[in-house]
Amino acid sequence: MEGQTHGDILVVEDDSTIAMGLVAALEHERFIVRHAENGEVALEAVRTRSPDLVLCDIMLPGIDGLKVMRTIKSEYPGIPVIMLTAKSDEIDRVMGLEMGADDYVTKPFSVREVIARVKARLRERDPDPRTPNNFSFGNVKVDLRRRVLWKNGEESHLTTHESGTLGYLITHRGRDVSRDELLREVWGYTAALTTRTVDNQILKLRKKIEDIPSQPRHILTVHGTGYRFEP
């Protein structure tokens, strides 16, 4: 395939139809793609040549996807893992994220959405050079690389999406940022998905950084548009 490649992706999926669809779509986007049909093959593939990102189904024969993800995160913590799951219960998705997954996509999914999520997670791994690793404002200090925040000296941890959202707002501080822009650039979601995702994320961030979350000084609401960060 001609042209510069965008990264090395490992697809871990036992359903050959889904796997081949993902492989074809990712290759079309100029990714190098390998496929593993079960957990054992996936771990061997990662150890043989570390990918830039792993797409991993939860329901796999043998070693299940959650164990594959935990093993990858233990041995190669810098590799983003996006879980593919047919389970629709929120508790399953939350459990996967709390166990270390960087994101999840629920089946049935659109290939466009998966590709958007992949690109968003890879952007997090190779952040915008304008985004500072460390940033201070008010009584808050944040280490975006380590995803750690200190407010009045008290430490708290940021999730992948909290860190990404805050980092994007900091990078574009003083500018109005729309909800759709945050969904696209940070979350990798298509604009068709609900923007309440962003609003809920902002509420969580405000609780961590604002003295009075209902009267924010740093993450301001721009009515009819989105948000603006003011140091």
Number of E strands = 12
Largest sheet: 5 strands, parallel
**Over the alpha carbons, how many angstroms does the gyration radius reach?**
18 Å
CATH architecture of the largest domain: 3-Layer(aba) Sandwich
Net shape: elongated
Spans of at least 5 consecutive residues with low confidence: none
**What fraction strand?**
15-25%
Question: How many DSSP helices?
Answer: 8
Strand order, main sheet: write it out. 2-1-3-4-5
Chain-averaged pLDDT: 87
- CATH class term of the largest domain: Alpha Beta
Order of helices and strands: EHEHEHEHEHEEEEHEHHEE
How many domains? The number is 2
Q: Would you identify the CATH H-level superfamily of the largest domain?
A: Response regulator
Cα distance spanning the termini: 46 Å
Broad structural category: alpha/beta
CATH topology of the largest domain: Rossmann fold
Describe the 3D structure:
By secondary structure, the protein is α/β, with parallel strands linked by helices. The protein has 2 domains: 8-125, Rossmann fold, CATH 3.40.50.2300; 134-229, Orthogonal Bundle (Arc Repressor Mutant, subunit A), CATH 1.10.10. 40% of the residues lie in helices and 22% in strands. It has 8 helices and 12 strands. The protein has helices at residues 16-28, 39-48, 65-75, 90-98, 111-125, 160-171, 179-187, 196-209, and strands at residues 8-12, 32-36, 53-57, 81-85, 103-106, 134-137, 140-143, 148-151, 154-157, 177-178, 219-222, 226-229. The strands form 3 sheets. The protein has a 5-stranded parallel β-sheet, sandwiched between helices. A 4-stranded antiparallel β-sheet has the order 6-7-8-9, with no helix packed on it. A 3-stranded antiparallel β-sheet has the order 10-12-11. Strand 8 and strand 9 form a beta hairpin. Helix 2 runs parallel beside helix 3 (65-75). The radius of gyration is 18 Å and the shape is elongated. It starts with 7 loop residues before the first strand and ends with a strand. The mean pLDDT is 87.
